[in-house]
Design brief:
The complex is a heterodimer of chains A (233) and B (522). Chain A is an alpha/beta fold. Chain A has helices at residues 46-53, 76-85, 102-107, 119-125, 141-154, 171-187, 199-202, and strands spanning 2-15, 18-31, 35-39, 61-66, 69-70, 87-90, 159-163, 191-196, 207-212, 215-221. In chain A, helix 5 (141-154) packs parallel to helix 6 (171-187). The longest helix of chain A is centred in the C-terminal third of the chain and has 17 residues, at 171-187. The radius of gyration of chain A is 17 Å and the shape is globular. Classes of the chains: A alpha/beta (233), B alpha+beta (522).
């Protein structure tokens, strides 16, 4: 069953007379519960695509439908509600609030999400119960990304959006975080969309969308995706 | 959770936060302090004047006022209360260079006093009520006897009360004295009955002396003089002593002058309270305070607000990523704006609260018995009154700080959540007008860089400039004021007053040429 539908979506940035088409008439659909990798080089438009799907940005043209709802015409407040309830984000540089503790960072989302899960339980799932009262600056990069995953899942979103989640980590920690991310998403039945330029991650995906110069080059469904342990990193 | 974030973020920007709180405290403190000062002067002084029934007008007649004159003045429509009044400076016997202004208010409805300790006023009382401050500085207590020298005779009075009086709130011996000195000069009141006793003693002594000169023995002269001085003589002498009528009236000065002329058939000198030294000086202090309260504090507040604008903008740009994170997580713009506006509100509330405390102490440093005005004003109550307009100004300032935070953050929230998540990017640079000038190319690299930075941050540059101008104004103004005052005093002492000794002669009102001479040795 399709959860996401992009229909002729373009995102055009203008600066004076100059016009930049970051995404150009992109169309695709995603099924619920799938692990999707959006693959492409820097500047291909993959982060723009993720931002549009996450309600962080609005398309210049076309429609984006998520769970049957057109999000391309939502107001600022409606988009905020969409971000609070439907999508969870995992960023490359974690984007934790430095002045809140681990527990508070995760708990923070329960202030805006109606279906939020128990913060402490989520921290337990990512194995950081011993660090509840630590500030992000007291954690390693991998630990911070795990907290970021706990925060994203705590909102209990339908879709988990990850922008280069392992981009700032060494390969060993990256694999560990990736495994955790996939396990957690599978356990909680979430659709995961990961934006990356790492070809290896694509080997694990159910669907691989290749993006270049703002256009979709291909949408491939993989019959037998590899597990994290099977991929040569 | 966001409240915790607010407190921790405030702590992480502690240098900026404390400097903003200090600026706000100083701004509000100075603003409130100066404005409280003049308002307190008005409030306390006017209250004291009202309590002691300070006269609205003073009428002077060289030949004195008879009871008939007094009744005619009382009959003027618009005169609420009046009294025949006497105020004369007398030396204290046995105390070198100590003197008092001795006052008598025939009707205790105008120009009265407040008893600090001792007996309440009694119009038939035999004692003397003296200034409590003068008494304290000269070790005089209730029950002590004071001997005053009046027209060649000594009179002894028992101190029955210690008082303060509106008429002598600024207690100056004469117009040449700049500051009160209760060590050497005070004031006192006696009852009209006691005045009559004094006049009678004086009259008997004068007549007795004349009779002795005519050849009578001392005993005979004394007994004959005692019978020779009649009530009519005393009434006449009393009429001549009361050279002043103090009255309370809401009439205009010219109308009162006309009415007095019509009633008494002669033109008299009428002095309104606005022209009386005590009232004029006190209100002058309030006016001065108002002027100070509308210039200096506004400058301080302006500097505080400008600091807030630049600092909040800097904090908002530093916080841009966090603002973006909150937005990306699903927090609505209004929640984020409210959260960050609270930073300004927090600084405003804390700064205002501390400023209110500072303002109170600034006011008290000026307006208290031991403060600066304590050496000038002598009054019983020293409160701390706040002008009503200060409350909306403080509330407005606090709201303005919140608004500054609001606007700074709103600028970062503009656009999509993705825009908010991007790090702050400085605005695009264009070549400034300076760079088009021919000498620009000849400047060294560092100077060019500095000039470009100044042109790039025009508002910050302007605010800093205004701040420095403000500080310089305060510094030059403050130091200039001191130099001006010392120059003024020098001019007064050496340029205007070309004398060393001033003589004053008081004419014997009982009809004999016996004079006392007051000598001021400068």
């Amino acid at each position: 069953m399709s959860i996401v539908k992009f229909d002729n979506v373009s995102r055009i940035y203008t600066s004076g007379d100059h016009e930049l088409r970051a995404l150009d008439k992109v169309s695709f659909t995603l099924d619920e519960g799938k692990f999707v990798v959006i693959l492409g080089p820097s500047g291909a438009g993959k982060s723009t695509l993720l931002n549009l799907l996450g309600g962080l940005d609005s398309p210049s043209e076309g429609t984006i439908t998520v769970s049957g709802k057109d999000i391309s015409k939502l107001t600022d407040n409606e988009l905020a509600d969409y971000r609070a309830s439907t999508v969870g984000f995992v960023f490359q540089f974690y984007n934790l609030i430095p002045t809140l503790t681990v527990y508070e960072n995760v708990k923070l989302v329960s202030e805006i999400s109606k279906d939020a899960l128990e913060a402490k339980a989520m921290i337990g799932k990512v194995g950081l119960l011993d660090h509840l009262n630590n500030f992000p600056s007291e954690l390693s990069g991998g630990e911070q990304q795990r907290i970021s995953i706990a925060r994203a899942l705590c909102k209990n979103p339908r879709i988990l959006l990850c922008d280069e989640p392992t981009g700032a980590l060494d390969s060993e920690t990256g694999v560990m975080v990736l495994k955790l991310l996939l396990d957690m998403a599978k356990n909680y039945g979430k659709t995961i969309v990961i934006v990356t330029h790492n070809q290896n991650i694509a080997k694990m995906a159910d669907v691989v969308i290749r993006v270049k110069n703002g256009k979709i080059r291909s949408v491939e469904e993989q019959e037998n995706p590899l597990s994290a342990d099977e991929v040569e990193w | 959770m966001l409240l915790r974030k607010l407190l921790r973020t405030s702590w992480s920007y502690k240098a900026q936060f404390f400097s903003m709180i200090i600026m706000m405290t100083l701004g509000i403190g100075i603003f409130l302090g100066f404005n409280m000062e003049w308002k307190t002067i008005e409030y306390d002084v006017c209250g004291f004047f009202e309590d002691t029934k300070y006269a609205d007008y003073r009428l002077y007649s060289e030949t004195g006022f008879t009871k008939d004159d007094f009744n005619k003045i009382m009959s003027i429509k618009g005169v609420d209360a009046a009294t025949r009044y006497l105020s004369v400076n007398l030396e204290i016997k046995g105390k070198s260079k100590k003197s008092l202004a001795l006052d008598v208010s025939e009707n205790y409805t105008v120009s009265t006093f407040t008893v600090i300790s001792g007996e309440e006023y009694d119009e038939k009382g035999d004692g003397i009520w003296i200034s409590d401050k003068f008494a304290r500085l000269n070790d005089i207590s209730i029950g002590d006897n004071l001997t005053l020298e009046f027209q060649g005779m000594d009179y002894e009075f028992e101190v029955v009360g210690l008082i303060k009086s509106g008429e002598h709130m600024i207690c100056l011996a004469d117009s040449n004295q700049v500051m009160p000195d209760f060590n050497t000069f005070g004031f006192a009141y006696i009852s009209p009955a006691k005045l009559r006793t004094v006049i009678k003693e004086k009259a008997v002594k004068t007549v007795s002396d004349e009779l002795r000169k005519a050849g009578l023995s001392e005993d005979v002269a004394k007994s004959q003089a005692a019978t020779a001085v009649t009530d009519e003589m005393l009434d006449r002498a009393t009429d001549e002593v009361f050279v002043q009528i103090n009255l309370r009236s809401g009439m205009e000065k010219t109308k009162l002058e006309d009415a007095v002329k019509k009633k008494l058939g002669k033109m008299l000198m009428v002095v309104s309270k606005e022209d009386d030294t005590v009232y004029k000086e006190a209100m002058g202090e309030a006016t001065e305070g108002k002027a100070m309260g509308s210039i200096l504090p506004v400058l301080f507040l302006a500097i505080a607000i400008l600091t807030m604008v630049t600092t909040m903008h800097r904090i908002a740009t530093k916080e841009k990523t966090q603002i973006g994170i909150l937005k990306a997580l699903g927090f609505k713009n209004r929640t984020i704006l409210l959260h960050y506006s609270f930073y300004g509100l927090f600084i405003g509330i804390v700064g205002s609260a501390l400023g209110a405390v500072l303002g109170y102490f600034v006011c008290k440093a000026v307006m208290s018995e031991n403060g600066m005005m304590g050496t000038y004003f002598d009054m019983p109550d020293w409160s701390a009154a706040t002008p009503a307009f200060c409350y909306p100004v403080i509330a407005g300032t606090v709201l303005l700080l919140a608004l500054i935070s609001f606007l700074s953050v709103r600028a970062q929230l503009r656009g999509t959540a993705a825009d908010a998540l991007r790090p702050y990017t400085p605005k695009k640079m264009k070549k400034s007008i300076l760079e088009k000038l021919p000498f620009f190319g000849k400047m060294n690299f560092a100077t060019k860089w500095n000039l470009r930075d100044l042109m790039r941050h025009k508002s910050r540059f302007a605010m800093t400039l205004v701040g420095i101008i403000g500080c310089m104004v305060l510094m030059v103004g403050g130091l200039g004021m001191r130099d001006t005052m010392s120059g003024f005093l020098d001019l007064l002492d050496n340029g205007v007053s070309h004398y060393h000794i001033e003589y004053r002669s008081v004419i014997d009102r009982v009809g004999y040429d016996i004079s006392t001479v007051q000598v001021q040795d400068r």
